[in-house]
Amino acid sequence: LTIYRESRDRAGEAKVLNSLGEVYNELSQYPKALEVLQQALTIRRELHDRKGEGETLDNLGETYALLDRLQLAFETLQQALAIQREIGNRSGESETLDNLSGVELSLSSYSSNRSKEKALELAQQALAIRQKLGDRRDLAETLGSIGGIYLAQERYVEALEPLRQALSIYQELGNRAGVGATLLSIGVVDFFKNQS
To answer: What's the CA angle centered on 181, arms 175 and 184, to 5 degrees?
Structure first.
């Protein structure tokens, strides 16, 4: 970051700040994430870097969601989605759709005018794009999201298929964290399925 600032490389500075925001999110240091992501967004807007702006807005939306500022997360992700679509960034679009589906699902728990069905629709849009792009890790992530939405809808039988597909991909990739999280989700689905 210091090198980019000293050399006045604003694009490089924004890229590092954006990456730092992602790291701070992973470390659950959300106020720091917001700070550096806002800086990255300001620079990317000054540079008219639409792809970078969409990416940073997506990260900001995730941060707001992690802070349980769901309406702000939704609005920020909507801005990111508009940019991703405007510039034809299909990978970014699928990432933002997946994030929007999670926020919509969370909002549906608090507000009667939100719907789990809308969350499912957004996740299915992300899935269609990710299937075309062929990124297996992202595909597994969205399949897991769809399984989670079905679980929230108490559609236990339907939840199992996308979760099993996600599990298979995570096993194929050797992604142990993904395997563990998906097995846990399958266990929860099985538990509730047997209770009903």
So the answer is: 135
